[in-house]
Known about the structure:
Helix content is 42%, strand content 17%.
Amino acid sequence: MNTLSVNLGSRSYDILLAPGLLTEAGPRIRAAGLKGRAAIITDENVAPHFLSRVQESLRASGYHFSSHLFPAGESSKSMTEVEKISRQLIQEGHDRSSFIIALGGGVTGDLAGFIAAIFYRGIPFVQIPTTIVSQVDSAVGGKTGVNAPEGKNLIGAFHQPRLVLSDPQTLLTLPDREFREGFAEVIKHAAIRDEAMLAELEALDPLDQNVSPDLIARNVAIKARIVEEDEQETSGTRALLNFGHSIGHGIEASVPYGSLLHGEAISLGIRAALILSEKHAGLSPTASQRILKLLAHFQLPLTLAQDIPTELILEKLARDKKFSGGQRTFVLLERLGKAITCSSIPATDIPPIIDSLRS
Length: 359
């Protein structure tokens, strides 16, 4: 069992990581001090694989619960779905003594976490992540929210989970594409904080879904330490986790939901950030090539489709929540393992860089 902690005073919590942990959900949640009724929120793809195991474990631990399914996919991260599920919770008799369990990937964690943040003005929730993206990144840190037509994650709240239960065996059920896209976040962590991890990733077989718990724990530790330093992204430290995400989110928001998975869009965003890093932060081309080869190793896209207009990406980029007061802040690499924020990049530099992603 790998046990890591996010130390945030009264909002501190543990991340437990071990194969088979899914069947221990009930006693682990009980040990974390959560009482009352549980509401399990999961999507229609995850439910057939894991819902019954979580239900059985909760039942054996004496919990009463309800289960709430929503259509899988990024399009469900919407205020429409928030209202629908919130009303279901009210109709099921949930109240301020209840808690939510987010069972699934990043979409589920963001959606269920946001519902927990606003239901009866806030109730506890537990993250049970089932994808690479959620296990190494999105389940930790308390960012919750949904999308608006104008952009990703523009409506949300900081709401830390009470517990994270991460079972690497859930990754074995992922389709190949969904498995590989998660490594964009792993490569991001290595690039900004852990250069030594790059060699470990280069040695991995991208088709082997038996992911080492130690590798997941290493990524979680990076995320946890950064969150401890800057929980609500006020000092600039937590912004480093956005490496590749500014232009990446702009690209992701410019195509129909599902056309590009999150990690695929972030791969393109990382390529753009590397170009900016060479020009504005002194990153060596050799370092850039190493990251690009690693993204290619996991079969992540590096070429932007011709039919995604630069003007549309720029429009989505202008609404990105990482920009404040009209100031564009990008995360760049000075060297592998060392990231910085930069607010001095001219707006005129961005369109040519987006255009260059097409070649």
